[in-house]
Design a protein that fits this description.
- The protein has 136 residues and is an all-alpha fold.
- The protein folds into two domains: 70 residues, lambda repressor-like DNA-binding domains (434 Repressor (Amino-terminal Domain), Orthogonal Bundle), CATH 1.10.260.40; 47 residues, no CATH class.
- The protein contains nine helices and no strands.
Length: 136
């Protein structure tokens, strides 16, 4: 395990990425707002207790080692395992290869990636309908 110090900048960046206020974070972590702010700057803080690092990790759904600066991968161990299982699936591999080979597919994948599940389902039905009509 690589030695490093707490990455205060990551704590702040994660709060901003999630759109949380200091008050919100403090209430979920179990500290005062001023303490949460010091956790983001490192000023006046020698260390953050491991239980608090764990609480931040849970709140932001990241690996505690990411907050400690031991890894640059923010994914939790469970997320890493899920990703490995997902990307090793043969159907997913086929989709990835198709997307990489033909730019038209990349545009389609990128366009639907931000859709809600309901909208993605509607697009899938439309594509199926076009495919069914093509065969006639």
């Amino acid at each position: 395990m690589k030695e490093s110090g707490i990455r205060y900048d990551r704590i702040k960046a994660l709060r901003e990425e999630h759109g949380y206020t200091l008050r919100y974070v403090a209430s979920h972590i179990g500290v005062t707002e001023s303490t949460a702010q010091r956790h983001e700057t490192g000023k006046g803080i020698r260390e953050i207790p491991s239980a608090i690092i764990g609480a931040y990790a849970i709140l932001y759904n990241v690996n505690p080692a990411y907050l400690m600066g031991w890894t640059d991968d923010p994914r939790s161990p469970g997320q890493i395992k899920q990703d490995e299982e997902y990307y090793s699936d043969p159907d997913v591999q086929k989709i990835i290869q198709t997307r990489e080979k033909d730019g038209r597919y990349k545009i389609l994948y990128d366009a639907v990636s931000d859709l809600s599940p309901e909208s993605a389902e509607l697009v899938a039905k439309m594509i199926k309908k076009f495919s069914d009509n093509k065969e006639e």
